């Protein structure tokens, strides 16, 4: 009987073993079916973020769910590899994917230490898990992991497995792979890491969310210690290296991707465009987007906006410290985390935070501590600008000593000037923007949408619709040339008053300043931005003729804006729309289409490439000078040409008039200065053309201009209904004082070292004289003298009714409205 039961038990056991074997074999072959073939596994591609570059191949943006920087095994430092081997898989180069000895040793260590101090899974198993399996904890999944690991060891070398692991492993803060972790935690490349930093990264795979040096620095330090202990025990490092690494700082700060050029508004605009076109998968598929941005021009634009806004802000006074640590609730100097506090405040590109620690009125020095315990000293000379801000039009008394400006514990901001001096500053409330184009292709070479992307992500260069003031006048003067009015025609700069029967008020457009200088040519009227000359001019042209012509530049003019005040810049556009219009004057009369993305690459393949229609001012002139767009018979449009909307001569004449805005000229009453003379002073160049613009009550300030290389528009204003105001040092703000310096600084830096780039004179353009003033004119044009100008003899022009009779003969001043757009 005993042998009978023994026989049954034996057969049952054998059957069970066989069943397990069959099941295991089934699972094994099922796992094999899930694996790619050898070549596919070797060519596995990682989910990599979208990257955005300038035209000269500098990284300006990176977007994605995961941060990953794939790197080959030979580029990974030996000690970093040994750190991972020490803590994750000491016998990696000895086992075949599964390490029974390692599992047994890890179990023993865990039991004796009462905690899991060594990993039981091999690096190969972790690769299998990361690439092919879920995180579910079942026997079936574990068996599958083992089988896949064995198969991986058959098809890949150890170095290939290790490379996959070091690039795939999750290391916290959305960083995958060691290179991404080095950038995230330390802002370094792999070859820049210290031994302590390598050990910290190697300690992350077990629990990256709770062991990383940002979220849990103390636990990260303990884990680093364990890694270093293992490395020392295995002979991977010396005793001295161990001690030095143990003494290293253990805290870390989050670092975004290491960008090579600063253009956040560009990067965000491109990101939105690409996601709209390709969907969210673009975050994962390693798209490389190349823009038209030139890094030198972009840096010039960044600095120009920073400097222009900072100068404006200084003129209007100091609003006080951003904070004071002594006023923080429950502040305790013994427990206060100064490093964390300053880290949170350090978010701007040009300015840095610091806490005031010492004030010396006697020595005229403020001492503060910045991030990483850097001592910062600011002299009174570099803070005496800080008169108290009262309003946009009022500033308090100038400070006499350091303590008039700052107090102990103040959180202040500073920047380093070109003399390497620390200068007190503040986060401004005013905003500014600039956008620059290649006028021949439409490629955007630089754009800044605000003072700082961290302050406001709203892109004013492309999204903010504002009135233009006198920045719009060149388009009106172009309509005059198209109408056949020569620019040496003489108009009267005398006050105008017109009765408006619709509103039952007098419309009284004014010059700004409110000064009138009598007879002057159209060139002088534009150079000096005379409003009443522009009103007289639009009456000569006709509002509807002006509208028809101005629409050629691509402007959308609602019916409500098709009125005489259009001559003063009541039209509303974005800076990008405005600079595109100016490009037509700069390129010989062609309407280019602005664009930002030149090429998109995916997995080495170009999947999109822009082919812009270009302007060629040397091409035969196809446009007849006139209000209605007509083309010369028999001249075909060149291949891939942007549409020509102005004759070459019209574009040149208006552009040349704008040179007088900057360099002045000679008029009926002698020499005159234009409103844009600061452009020459700042840049030192002789090849510039441009126009200032300021809207009612100095709400917006503009400057647009160009030479033969680039065209740009700058703007300054508030996002609210605040006006730019007045300062004690400058007087009233405006296009010439607020926006022009931004434009001029951009031109000075971006064009530094370049040869003069004048606009060439079109073939066949002639000159004619009027009252001793000789200027460019188009054959067949008309020269108007002052006696021809309606309204010369009186300052009152009254509208008439349908019978031609005046609707009012007495002056009613009760409803007078003024228009100060200039």
TrEMBL record:
Record domain Glycosyl transferase family: where: 57-231
Every Penicillin-binding protein OB-like domain range: 318-430
Penicillin-binding protein transpeptidase domain sequence ranges: 433-706
Alphabetically ordered keywords of this record: Antibiotic resistance, Carboxypeptidase, Cell inner membrane, Cell membrane, Cell shape, Cell wall biogenesis/degradation, Glycosyltransferase, Hydrolase, Membrane, Multifunctional enzyme, Peptidoglycan synthesis, Protease, Signal-anchor, Transferase, Transmembrane, Transmembrane helix
GO cellular component terms listed in the entry, alphabetical order: outer membrane-bounded periplasmic space; plasma membrane
Enzyme Commission number, as recorded: 2.4.99.28, 3.4.16.4
Coiled-coil segments: none
Single GO molecular function: penicillin binding
Feature: compositional bias, Polar residues: 810-822
Compartments where located: Cell inner membrane
Gene3D superfamilies: Biosynthetic peptidoglycan transglycosylase-like, DD-peptidase/beta-lactamase superfamily
InterPro entries to which the protein is assigned, alphabetical: Beta-lactam/transpept-like (IPR012338), Glyco_trans_51 (IPR001264), Glycosyltr_51/Transpeptidase (IPR050396), Lysozyme-like_dom_sf (IPR023346), PBP_transglycosylase (IPR036950), PCB_OB (IPR031376), PCN-bd_Tpept (IPR001460)
Annotated pathway: Cell wall biogenesis; peptidoglycan biosynthesis; Glycan biosynthesis
Function: Cell wall formation. Synthesis of cross-linked peptidoglycan from the lipid intermediates. The enzyme has a penicillin-insensitive transglycosylase N-terminal domain (formation of linear glycan strands) and a penicillin-sensitive transpeptidase C-terminal domain (cross-linking of the peptide subunits).
Family listed: In the N-terminal section; belongs to the glycosyltransferase 51 family. In the C-terminal section; belongs to the transpeptidase family.
Protein name (database record): Penicillin-binding protein 1A
Organism encoding this protein: Succinivibrio dextrinosolvens DSM 3072
